[in-house]
TrEMBL record:
InterPro entries: CO_DH_flav_C, CO_DH_flav_C_dom_sf, Diverse_Substr_Oxidored, FAD-bd_PCMH, FAD-bd_PCMH-like_sf, FAD-bd_PCMH_sub2, Mopterin_DH_FAD-bd. It comes from the Bacteria. Residues 1-163 form the FAD-binding PCMH-type domain. It holds the Pfam family FAD_binding_5. Coiled coil: none annotated. This is FAD binding domain-containing protein.
Amino acid sequence: MLTFEKYVRPGSAAQALELLRENRQATVIGGMMWLRLADRTSPLGIDLAGCGLDKVEETEDAFRIGAMVTLGQLENHERFKAATCGIFTEAVRDIVGTQFRNLATVGGSLYARMGFSDIVTALLALDTEVELEGAGTMPIIPFVERGARNDILTHVVVRKHRYQAAFESVRNAATDFSALNAAAACWQGSWHVTVGARPKKATLVTGGERIPLRRDFSPAELDAVCELAESLDFGDDLRGTAAWRRAVAPALVRRAVERAAKKPRAEKEA
Ligand SMILES: Cc1cc2nc3c(=O)[nH]c(=O)nc-3n(C[C@H](O)[C@H](O)[C@H](O)COP(=O)(O)OP(=O)(O)OC[C@H]3O[C@@H](n4cnc5c(N)ncnc54)[C@H](O)[C@@H]3O)c2cc1C
């Protein structure tokens, strides 16, 4: 059981960060769905529930999602869904169940950067930035690669584009963790393809600093990207071997790209 010697509910992210900086052994509490599995005593629990981070704000150019927005809130946000071709809804729909997703948060899911995460794989394919109370704003790619220690994730910003996007995963059983997952999103003329649950955390196959796949790719160009997926660094765990993941990744990437390419492009103004 996870036990807190002291529990606080600050009224702002700035106060939460101050408390965290004063006590580096403190535990930041999001939806508590992952944390509650721990068996330890923490000197201080900093609950973000009072920080006003539970809203999705829409501007002309972006969706600014508070860290305490639940997976359920976001998967059912009609405008976000329309603007991102439903990729987030596809990514979370097999995570445990409705009640669970109404408690687990977007911030807790991203900050933890878990290898099996479907959420990281999906958000990494979109034009996403994270806002941290201490470190400021950074693109999602360095955040996923390196993380941010002892900080508070306050918002996830997804920029609007005329996306085409889709998410795919393989699960050994319904609602189990993904044994492998992939996402594809086309924006600003090129495809951003990610593969996660390798079982290491998600990484880009195309897009970012990787070789781009242009919007109107040829069959040979898509074949080349599928080959790239095969060359990623895979590992073994109880859900699959590295060899199995290497064999399946190209097919999953192809499926994600082809399914996304068939979807109508999102209107920038969703
Ligand atoms: C049984 C089970 C099955 C799951 N299955 C899946 C699955 O199939 N696919 C998938 O993608 N995910 C899955 N998850 C993960 C889940 O979706 C959430 O990502 C997870 O519960 C974390 O979200 P939370 O809000 O509960 O975070 P918490 O448990 O509250 O926190 C998680 C970690 O993040 C830190 N943290 C939380 N919020 C912040 C913040 N704003 N700033 C800084 N640090 C913060 C905490 O200190 C902690 O270290 C599963 C989880 C469980 C328990």
